[in-house]
Amino acid sequence: MAQKLPVALVSGVGPGTGAAITRRFARGGYAVAMLARDKDRLAALEREIENTHGYSCDVADEAQVEATLQRVSSDLGAPAVLVHNAVGGAFGTFLEIEPEVLNRNFQVNTMALLHLARRVAPAMIERGKGAVIVTGNTSALRGRQKFAGFAPTKAAQRILAEAMARDLGPTGVHVAYVVIDAVIDVEWTRAMFSKPEGDPFFAQPSAIAEEVWHVAHQERSAWSFNVEVRPFAENW
Fold first, then answer.
1. Is 135 helix (H, G, I), strand (E, B) or coil?
2. Domains (ranges, CATH) in the chain?
3. Taking burial as the number of CB atoms within 10 A of a residue's CB, which of 102, 167, 174, 189 is the most buried?
4. What is the four-CA torsion angle of 101, 105, 107, 113, rounded to 10 degrees?
5. Residue among 234, 175, 225 nearest 207 (CA)
6. Using CB atoms within 10 A of its CB, is residue 13 exposed (0-12), middle (13-18) or buried (19+)?
7. pLDDT per position as a tens digit, 91-140
8. How many Å apart are CA 161 and CA 106, to the nearest integer?
9. How large is the C-alpha radius of gyration of the chain?
């Protein structure tokens, strides 16, 4: 019988960072469980990338998370790595945003991390190893005026991840938060900023994925928690 591949669970698998993380972990020898709401995108990625498995799931819905994680464990086994990449965002001042928008983003960014981690962590603790990597951004570190519907949820996400890291680290499970201080190179951002693909203004999804892979596989005597990535020309 063929040996089962280790499992990486990636939430928020869209055409940019999520797909790039999926490709990197599949290339690294993992079976990748991809979570997203778009069934057609998941099916296309399954056809494109070997050892990937799509699961349509709204991570803001706890019942869907529970059912999906049961399917993943049954189909592939318990995840050895969780990458929470799903993101809900909105632009507007605190006077402009609808309160429900902030709540929805909190469910996707923060509560989904809690629900996913609570379901994958026990098996990691039992094995004495594993990794939970969260992709964040500079909104987790500061609240700018047009980010009132987004920044509070990312700050809460980072603090939750830090609390998890302190709980799980002594058990052998690594938790890290990757701050992406950049605009990511995808079709809609190129249109928004009127810049060509590959412009140095952008961070490349494949480069972000490489750093996520690296952090997930750090030697345990030198783990990172706060990790920041940005383009070389970024003014920070």
1. strand
2. 7-229 (3.40.50.720)
3. 174
4. 180
5. 234
6. buried
7. 899 999 999 999 999 999 999 999 999 999 999 999 999 999 999 999 99
8. 14
9. 17
